[in-house]
Amino acid sequence: MEDITGGSASSPARPGGFGLRGMKGFTAVWAGQFVSILGTSMTNFALTIWAWEKTGEATALALVGFSFVAPYILMSPFAGALVDRWNRKLVMMLSDLAAGASTLAVLLLFASGRLEVWHLYVTSAFAGAFQAFQFPAFSAAITLMLDKEQYARANGMMSLAHSASNIFAPVAAGILLPIVGIGGIMAFDVVSFLAAVGALALIHVPQPQAREREKPSLLQDSMFGFRYILGRPSLLGLQLIFLVSNFTGSIGFSLLAPMILSRTGNDNLILGSVQSAFGVGGVIGGLVISAWGGPRRKVNGLLLGLTSSSLLGMTTMGLGRGVAIWVAAAFVLMFVNPITNGCSQAIWQSKIPPELQGRVFSTRALIAQASQPLAMFIAGPLADRLAEPAMMPGGALALPLGWLVGTGPGTGMALIFVAAGIIGASTSLAGYVFDAIRNVEEIIPDHDVTASPEVETSIATRG
Question: By three-state DSSP, how is residue 108 classified?
């Protein structure tokens, strides 16, 4: 196959420079990100309650998520091209500062008594556009800072940070809301972003060696990731699976809070308990993958993880009719999530040359998440106008499906959870049918291994 990178593979440069390095440097960044994620999760919890009490509609909550993801996806190709051109440490710092600025804007609007739900759409869109830079820059930085044997563990640590925040954020927000109010929680969030930026200032992130090639335009460079992935059916297959999984998962998670609030008479404590269960499962799963490193064949961890989270998590969440089942489903779903994501990240970080990862990873994120805006956009109307009325006593689906999820408020959304889980599990298991996906780790050589001409020529056609 023609070398679309414009040169032969080369090892990433690990030049001199100031700041913490290796796992010590990554741990410093991890600590800063954990504080920032905790602050953001507390803010999201508080604003979710605020928006639900103000509107009482699932559509309003789903549109907040849509407003974040849509610009994230639209910006991803350009963000990846710029990440590969710019200093990756600086990109991460600017991304954190932009997210902090959006929270500060919401805080000022709330403090002045002018905050409306549509303001959350605007600030979420602003934060989403800048967050498009964070994922490719951070993923590429891990590749450059650590040895590949540490990739799964490092990604497990990041999943651990997200999961731990899911434990502490609802509890902390619930305790602090009566004391400091939503404004106080958002003020902590703004400070937490400064902590993340400060941690980044302490580390050294090596820049990859530049390849000698003609500089394309930004538009041409933004298309590079598509050409790279489309030329490798194994990588494309993995992303198509995530495309479907993210679609079904986004529909479900957009409806989680309104489903539980509807079925419990707006019991914030139960909602917080379920969200904390997500965190507990994620923390334990993150600890497992961080210590274990994942299975030898990472593709098994990826496909079986997605299947388990769909069936045992999403479907069980919909079938549950009380806090015990919801908590158990939330725990299982998030327990396997760090393992799934850690295995997926390890595959991509070991296969893609570091100097290409900004563009390829941003395209990877776009393909995997392209369905999320659509899912979030339709989730609210699907629940409010179709599923919920159909599952009310006397509704069109109440008689044939009432035995499955019950009838009344929230049951239409529960039925959507059940269907989403079944579709997601079926798609993940289908990955084993295709050789290009099942054997991705053998078909695509590691970036630090020089492939023979025969192997390189066959990459785009095997499977």
Answer: helix
Cα distance between residue 298 and residue 320, in whole Å: 31
Quote the CA–CA distance of 202 and 267 in Å, as a whole number.
Answer: 43
Are 81 and 221 in contact by the 8 Å Cβ rule? The answer is: yes
Helix 398-405 and helix 411-430, axial crossing angle in degrees, nearest 10: 80
Dump pLDDT digits (tens) for 420-431.
999 999 999 999
What's the pTM? 0.67
Q: What is d(CA 259, CA 331) in angstroms, rounded to the nearest whole number?
A: 17
Q: In whole angstroms, what is the distance from residue 198 CA to residue 93 CA?
A: 9
For 181: left if phi > 0, alpha if psi spans -120 to 50, otherwise beta; the answer is left
User: pLDDT tens digits for 255-280?
Assistant: 998 999 899 988 878 888 898 788 78
Q: What angle do CA 395, 398, 400 make, to 5 degrees?
A: 130
Between CA 328 and CA 296 the distance in angstroms is 28
In the block, residue with structure tokens 């390849």: 211
The phi and psi torsions of 203 (rounded to 5 degrees) equal: -105, 165
Confirm if 251 and 457 have CB atoms less than 8 A apart: no
pLDDT tens by residue, 289-326: 877 878 889 999 999 999 999 999 999 999 999 999 99
Strand runs labelled E in 82-214: none
Structure tokens at 332: 């299982």
The enclosing H or E element of 29 equals helix 22-55
Query: Two tokens at 418?
Result: 């059940």
List helix spans (H) across 202-322. Answer: 218-222, 224-230, 233-254, 256-263, 268-292, 298-308, 316-319
Q: Mark out the alpha helices in 112-150 (DSSP H runs).
A: 117-145
**Residue 200, Cβ neighbours under 10 Å: how many?**
24
Instruction: Find how far residue 94's CA is from the centre of its chain.
Output: 19
List of domains in the chain = 22-207+224-458 (1.20.1250.20)
DSSP 451: P
Instruction: Please report, for residues 26, 96, 187, 349, 350, the alpha-carbon distance to residue 31 in angstroms, rounded to integers and kept in the order given.
Output: 9, 14, 19, 22, 24
